[in-house]
Amino acid sequence: MKKLISFCVVVLFILSACQSSKKNTTDSPSTAVAALNGSWQLTYITGPRITFDGLYPNKKPTIIFDVTKKTIAGNAGCNSYGGSLNAQPGKIDFSGPMFSTQMACAEDEMTGETTYLQMLKKVNAFSVSDSTLHFMAGNLVLMSFTKK
Q: What is the reported pTM?
């Protein structure tokens, strides 16, 4: 009986030591997600049959990540937008609620803005290398950004 109790104490000690050595990752972003932090400007978008400069004649869309606060913000070409950041290493989701201003925009600005916001909803993955950010659907690159 004494051996059983000693064995149980040793097992509990080992389990508690293993538990206390685990890092708390819920408060600190992973390195992959932290790479998103900062301001990015759109340089490529797939889909439309309009040239990139024709789609965004005045202002290129931007996205700003604050990984500490878990928020996104930016400009879609005319209107500003923002919301919560839902990301984990390699995966990102823009399907949650987002706000957008409702400014009167020129028709050519609205075409690009609508394309950009609709494309964001299709994104489910990301990759960051050097100063380039890619938003993807699976392995297909939908949008590319450069760090501002």
A: 0.80
